[in-house]
Specification:
Number of helices: 6
Mean pLDDT: 92
Low-confidence stretches: none
Oligomer: single chain
Number of domains: 1
Order of helices and strands: HHHHHH
Length: about 160
C-alpha cells in the first residue's frame, strides 16, 4: 500500500497536511531571495557545527534551529514534489482526453440536431433548445468567415488606394 505522506510519482493520494503552505501574490515572488547552487552543502555545514563553534562566531542557537526548521520544510517539499508534478501532469492529460471526448460528442450531437432540423417542417422547435450547442459548434467557422471578410476588405482597400 502506498504511503500518502511519502508519495511516489503516479500515486493519486498525496498528504501534505503537515506542511504550512503559503500563497503569495505573483509580484511578490520576484522580490524573494533565491537559493543558489551549493545551498544544501552550506545548510548542512552550519547544522553540523558544534554549539561552541556557533557561539564563538556569534551565531545564536535559535537561528540555527530556525534554519533547521526551514530546511526540513524544503526537504519535505522536495520529497513530495515529483509526485505532485506527476499528479498534476496526469490530471491535465486526463482533462485533455475527457475534453476531447466531450468535443467529439458535442460535434456529433450538433450534426444530428442540424440533420433533423434540416428535414423537419418544425426546424425551430428541434434546433431552438440546442441553440447554445449550435452556437458553440459553429463558433470557429463564424470566426474564420469574419477573418476572411476582414482580409478581403483590407485587400480591396489596398487595391483602391494603391
Amino acid at each position: 500500500m502506498d504511503d500518502p505522506k511519502h508519495p511516489k510519482p503516479t500515486d493519486k493520494h498525496i498528504d501534505v497536511r503537515d506542511l504550512e503552505l503559503v500563497d503569495i501574490p505573483p509580484d511578490h515572488v520576484a522580490r524573494l531571495s533565491k537559493l543558489r547552487a551549493g545551498h544544501a552543502e552550506a545548510v548542512e555545514g552550519v547544522l553540523r557545527l558544534p554549539a561552541a563553534t556557533l557561539k564563538r562566531a556569534g551565531v545564536h542557537a535559535e537561528e540555527v534551529q530556525d534554519l533547521a526548521a526551514h530546511w526540513a520544510t524544503i526537504q519535505r517539499i522536495d520529497e513530495v514534489m515529483p509526485a505532485v508534478e506527476k499528479l498534476l501532469e496526469l490530471l491535465k492529460e486526463t482533462r485533455l482526453v475527457h475534453g476531447h471526448e466531450v468535443a467529439l460528442k458535442l460535434g456529433e450531437m450538433a450534426s444530428q440536431v442540424r440533420r433533423r432540423a434540416d428535414h423537419a417542417h418544425n426546424a425551430g422547435e428541434i434546433a431552438g433548445p440546442f441553440e447554445p450547442l449550435l452556437a458553440y459548434q459553429s463558433g470557429p467557422a463564424l470566426r474564420a468567415a469574419a477573418t476572411k471578410a476582414k482580409a478581403a476588405k483590407v485587400a480591396a482597400e489596398e487595391k483602391e488606394g494603391g
